[in-house]
Amino acid sequence: MKIAKLKDKNGNEILPRSVIDFFDRKINIRKSVNISQANTWYDVGISGQDLGTGTYIMQAFLNGKALDGQYDERISGIVAWFSSNTNSYDVDEIPLSKSGHTRNTHNIKFRVLRQPNNSPAKLQISDTIAWSGSSDIVFTFRRLI
């Protein structure tokens, strides 16, 4: 099947709207998380088919009293995701960039945990400081490829 090339009013080739929509779609997921013990990995509640297979820019927004001093923090990274079941014990930490009002010595990390026995991958979080309770994290994902 041949796809017709679309052009703007100046004759420049443009992508079909369906391709633009595919990559321009943002997925917002709000999860309540409690890191009750420092330097321990916790599931955030995002796994398997919550995202389609692909590579995403991920942003996590944190802002709350239970975070003990993290205010208006944005944490971003590139995440490779596989939506089908996995079959290994591998973990891949996500390189992150962080910015915001203050993080007060917290050092949050994210990783993707694969699981054996045909179970879905999971997104996990860790912090160098335990939290005093649960706090919402707003995740935004935008597909790259």
Structure description:
The protein is mainly beta. The two termini are 22 Å apart. The chain contains one helix and twelve strands. A five-stranded antiparallel β-sheet has the order 3-12-5-6-9. Strands 4, 7, 8, 10 and 11 form a five-stranded antiparallel β-sheet that branches. Strands 1-2 form a two-stranded antiparallel ribbon.
Please outline the helices and strands.
Elements (H helix, E strand, L loop, with lengths): L5 E2 L5 E2 L2 H8 L1 E8 L8 E6 L6 E9 L8 E11 L3 E2 L4 E3 L2 E7 L6 E7 L3 E8 L8 E9 L2
Give a quick summary of the entry.
With 145 residues, this protein is mainly β.
Helix content: under 10%
Rg (CA only)? 18 Å
Class by SSE composition: mainly beta
Q: Approximately what portion of the residues adopt beta-strand conformation?
A: over 45%
Shape: globular
Mean pLDDT over the residues? 88
Number of strands: 12
- Low-pLDDT runs of 5+ residues are none
**Secondary-structure element string:** EEHEEEEEEEEEE
Termini separation: 22 Å
Task: Please work out how many helical segments DSSP would assign.
Answer: 1
How are the strands of the largest sheet arranged? Answer: 3-12-5-6-9
Main beta-sheet annotation: 5 strands, antiparallel
